[in-house]
TrEMBL record:
It is found in: Golgi apparatus membrane. Pathway: Protein modification; protein glycosylation. This is Hexosyltransferase. Residues 16-110 form the DUF4094 domain. Its EC number is 2.4.1.-. Its cofactor is Mn(2+). Belongs to the glycosyltransferase 31 family. Gene3D superfamilies: 3.90.550.50. InterPro entries: DUF4094, Glyco_trans_31.
Length: 405
């Protein structure tokens, strides 16, 4: 009995130890498992939190960078805008200074002429009062001593007379004068006849320093522009021949379109042949300057009618003593602008033909500025025919007085 009970105790103790060992092992494993789960999950969550925080930081940094880039672009645009504005202001000031310099030089030239005792024209006494206002244009009608009938035909057609001419100046800002110099015999019968004519009509501009002559047209053109720019402050200065029909309102409307442009030269641009053969009309004595025989002139406005802006007229006035004169005055004028930044405007309405050409164009709503016959370099027999041209191609008196420039 005693031995048996010992065996039973021994067996129970053995079982108890095994179970104890297994229980301990299970607890150990459970503890390890629990420890791994508890340690791993918070670590993963911590990494996720860190990743989220870093992403948020990166997002903030990216947004900050983008904001800086946008600000830099905006600042860059602002800087470019300011640079452009500054450049524009400098360019405008440069043009203004250039114009003032030319006006000052022209005024000095006029003053020197007066101090020398040679008045520029019979309009000098009115020069000071005229300078108080700005005119649209000055139209100089080139004429000669022998052209009294032509002048009277122009007065009877497209050039207003008396109070209407004064109204044209005061209300429309348009000055129109026949331009003529003096005879070779100062104070002779030709000069006295012109003075009497001027007393009657008051529409002549006398060029005191010019002696009339066909071969002196280039010199006359220079003196005309120098005189006109000294007497009247205008946007444009026009030269037209006394055998050409002109629609003044249409001319004004044409010039107004170019009023804001600097240095404009308007006319029917051409490039005729350089004639080297002596004895022919329009012979060019200096033909060798234009290259080989058969060459053509540079582009220039035909001489029947052309217009230049004030800055170009001032340029001629300032430099008249060094500007070269060719045989043909329209070629001379074109040569004076070579090398300058001048805009050549080719407008074919300034050189229409006589009826039916100008009449058809007027009926089509495209009224001509000037009409003449190319074969005669003016209206053929203009003293007799200009009235017919005016009747068929004229714009009508109401067009002039209703026009706004």
């Amino acid at each position: 009995m005693s031995f048996k009970s010992k065996g039973d105790q021994s067996s129970g103790s053995s079982v108890s130890k095994k179970w104890t060992f297994l229980l301990c092992l299970g607890c150990f494993c459970a503890g390890m498992l629990f420890t791994n789960r508890v340690g791993t999950v918070p670590q993963s969550k911590g990494i996720m939190r860190a990743t989220a925080m870093e992403a948020e930081k990166l997002k903030l940094i990216s947004e900050s960078c983008n904001l800086k880039v946008k600000e830099e672009k905006h600042v860059s645009k602002d800087i470019m805008g300011e640079v452009f504005k500054t450049h524009h202001v400098i360019h405008t000031l440069d043009k203004t200074i250039s114009n003032l310099e030319m006006e000052l030089a022209a005024a000095r030239a006029a003053q020197e002429s007066l101090l020398d005792g040679s008045p520029l024209s019979t309009d000098v006494n009115r020069a000071e009062s005229s300078r108080k206002r700005r005119y649209l244009m000055v139209i100089g009608i080139n004429t000669a001593f022998s052209s009294r009938k032509r002048r009277d035909s122009v007065r009877a057609t497209w050039l207003p007379q008396g109070e209407k001419r004064k109204k044209l100046e005061d209300e429309k800002g348009i000055i129109v004068r026949f331009v003529i110099g003096h005879s070779a015999t100062t104070g002779g019968i030709l000069d006295r006849a012109i003075e009497a004519e001027n007393q009657k009509h008051g529409d002549l501009l006398r060029l005191q320093d010019h002696v009339e002559g066909y071969l002196e047209l280039s010199a006359k053109t220079k003196i005309y522009f120098a005189t006109a720019v000294a007497l009247w402050d205008a946007d444009f200065y026009v030269k037209v021949d006394d055998d050409v029909h002109v629609n003044i309102a249409t001319l004004g409307e044409t010039l107004v379109r170019h009023r804001k442009k600097p240095r404009v030269y308007i006319g029917c641009m051409k490039s005729g042949p350089v004639l080297s053969q002596k004895g022919v009309r329009y012979h060019e004595p200096e033909h060798w300057k234009f290259g080989e025989a058969g060459n053509k002139y540079f582009r220039h406005a035909t001489g029947q009618l052309y217009a230049i802006s004030k800055d170009l007229a001032s340029y001629i006035s300032i430099n008249q003593h060094v500007l070269h004169k060719y045989a043909n005055e329209d070629v001379s004028l074109g040569s004076w602008f070579i090398g300058l930044d001048v805009e050549h405007i080719d407008d074919r309405r300034l050189c229409c033909g006589t009826p039916p050409d100008c009449e058809w164009k007027a009926q089509a709503g495209n009224a001509c500025v000037a009409s003449f016959d190319w074969s005669c370099s003016g209206i053929c027999k203009s003293a007799d025919r200009i009235k017919e041209v005016h009747r068929r191609c004229g714009e009508g008196e109401n067009a002039l007085w209703s026009a706004t420039f």
